[in-house]
Amino acid sequence: MILPIIAYGDPVLRKVADEIDKDYPKLNDLISHMWETMYNASGVGLAAPQIGLPIRIFLVDTTPFSDDEDLTAEEQKQLDGFKQVFVNAYIEEETGEEWAFNEGCLSIPDVREDVNRKDTIKITYLDENFNTHSKTFDGLLARVIQHEYDHIEGILFTDKLSALKKRMLKGRLTNISKGKISVDYRMKFPAMKKGR
């Protein structure tokens, strides 16, 4: 089932998400719906807050990035077929040089900006079967994970921009929160809620 993606301005995107346990109701169905929703919107990652659930789940499939001709063969291989569910994830450390990359977000359509992030992360998480993993990722793969991880911490990529950039984007972000934007996937806007 394709779910609507929550737009910028909704308070759920600002909550630090809660951990879940393996008895979370219909977890496998939820994960399946999240994959379907992400692929329908041509995304490479999706976090539960983006579908209105303040829980610590996000998923990543970096395969679309593996076609990028600017990447080395090793980077393309790392990204091709990387598909993972992250439950109750915590980034233990971020190391290496900061580097800029042009990021976007399904909850903030038609806004793309360069964001600086550290190159390497160590992250502890559970997979969809609740097996524990502690892994190190780097490069573009680390960046996609960091972006989705931020969502379960109540952080958006626009928070990492300079004060000037934020001021320049203010009108566009306000329009998104009011539903004054055209997208080719289902979205739910804060202004559509009852009582507003």
From TrEMBL:
Keyword Protein biosynthesis: yes
A GO molecular-function annotation: metal ion binding
Recorded catalytic activity of this chain's protein: N-terminal N-formyl-L-methionyl-[peptide] + H2O = N-terminal L-methionyl-[peptide] + formate
Cofactor: Fe(2+)
Residues spanning the signal sequence: none
Entry keyword annotation includes Metal-binding: yes
Active site: 148
Record-stated family: Belongs to the polypeptide deformylase family.
Name of the molecule in the record: Peptide deformylase
